[in-house]
Amino acid sequence: MSELKPRITENGIDYILVGDYYIPDLKLPEEHRPIGKYGRMHREYLREVHPARLNTLILTGELWTYLADLNEQAQERLDTIMEQMKAAEGVTEELKRTSQMEWVQRCNNIHNRAEEIVLHEMIYS
């Protein structure tokens, strides 16, 4: 009997010899960006509400990229909404200098409202 080759290519796919079997040498693309808070929240949402979509993203190797992109978009949207709300409500550096506690309270209030908007629009939809 002839010696089996350690690596073969057939139909454009590389195979590695493992024991007596050839296993496809498939690699997922590496993603180095973090998925962050909003990516983790959306992944949990997909797991609970849309498991088929989650499995599709996992099997195609697109999950990490999808979640990292979503996290970046959600963070940018949050920052934009917060800036708009601060301008509309008069939360300025002048207020920060004159009344720090009121400034902190109003900024926290704006942050919480903006985050609710982002969660509703992007994460849980």
UniProtKB/TrEMBL annotation:
The keyword Coiled coil applies. Keywords: Coiled coil. It comes from the Bacteria. Residues 71-98 form a coiled coil. It holds the Pfam family TnpV. InterPro entries: TnpV (IPR026989). This is TnpV protein.
